[in-house]
Specification:
By secondary structure, this protein is an alpha+beta fold. 24% of the residues lie in helices and 35% in strands. A six-stranded antiparallel beta sheet has the order 1-2-3-4-12-11. β2 and β3 form a beta hairpin.
Length: 290
């Protein structure tokens, strides 16, 4: 009897029966690119802001320094007290850029009270091409002094040789009112129109018209009248108020005129060096030694 066929064992797996570790694949996010360009841009913006702020700070300091320099020079030239207010306007444009060029393009100055002799006026000064080197000349230098009617009246002694009863400014002339006596018997009121003009060393007052009662008579006709000129010669003479002794010798009176009810005296000093001798030495009146 045949033997039964024995069951064959199941073939073993070729894979090791030890369980393999589980592999987990993790996907890494893509690396972000560094924004180096943005960083440089921010840095440049910061630097630019600092430069702009620095410029304005430097400009303010330079302007303040320039104003102080001009104020000191004006006080010294015009013989003003150190505490006298002096308003300075340096015009348009950067003071720093102008300083690099060696001069300030334009300077405007106002002095509320400028006195010369017995009168006081408001002075407006304009200068162009003002060098930072005070030994070099300015381009132009002009001063307009406006004297009110009230202050003009302080010039009474320079307007006529007689006692004046009135002084009025207007219509382009200074009108003085007085009177004179004929042989001590008759007192005649008289008015004289004086035309101011620039003269060597100061201001000249030239009689133009004399009013006797309601009649206007030319000075030329009265000068040719021996009878009148003998008794009223004090009204027919030109007189002068010298201002040279109160101003630096470099500054000359160039024009005098009546504007409204004010007397405007124009003074010129073109081409003068602010640090020169001519601005530190007072002028003299012709024939007086003063």
């Amino acid at each position: 009897m045949a033997e039964p066929i024995a069951e064959r064992p199941a073939p073993s797996s070729p894979v090791d029966t030890v369980p393999l570790p589980r592999v987990v694949v993790v996907e890494q996010p893509p690396k972000k690119k560094r924004r180096r360009g943005l960083g440089w841009l921010i840095a440049l913006v910061v630097v630019a802001i600092l430069l702009v702020v620095g410029y304005f700070v430097a400009e303010a300091y330079a302007k303040q320094y320039a104003i102080g320099y001009v104020q000191d020079q004006v006080r010294a030239v015009l013989g003003l007290d150190a505490k006298t207010p002096v308003d300075v306007d340096l015009g348009d444009g950067s003071v720093i850029f102008q300083a690099i060029g060696g001069s300030v393009h334009e300077v405007n100055v106002t002095v509320d009270e400028l006195s010369f002799g017995g009168i006081t006026g408001t002075a407006h000064l304009n200068a162009t091409d003002v060098p930072l080197d005070s030994s070099k000349p300015v381009g132009t230098l002009g001063i307009d002094v406006t004297v009110t009617e009230k202050n003009v009246r302080k010039l009474a002694d320079f307007l006529s040789g007689s006692q004046l009863k009135s002084i009025d400014v207007g219509n382009g002339v200074i009108t003085i009112g007085s009177e004179f006596s004929v042989f001590g018997l008759i007192t005649i009121p008289v008015g004289v129109d004086l035309k101011p003009s620039a003269a060597d060393g100061g201001i000249n007052f030239e009689p133009q018209t004399v009013t006797l009662g309601d009649n206007d008579i030319s000075v030329a006709d009265l000068r040719n009248n021996p009878a009148f000129s003998a008794v009223a010669s004090q009204f027919l003479q030109s007189r002068q108020f010298c201002v040279a002794q109160y101003l630096p010798e470099a500054l000359k009176v160039s024009d005098v005129k009546v504007v409204g009810s004010d007397l405007v005296v124009s003074i010129n000093g073109d081409g003068t060096a602010l640090g020169g001798k001519e601005l530190s030495t007072l002028g003299t009146c012709p024939g007086s030694g003063q």
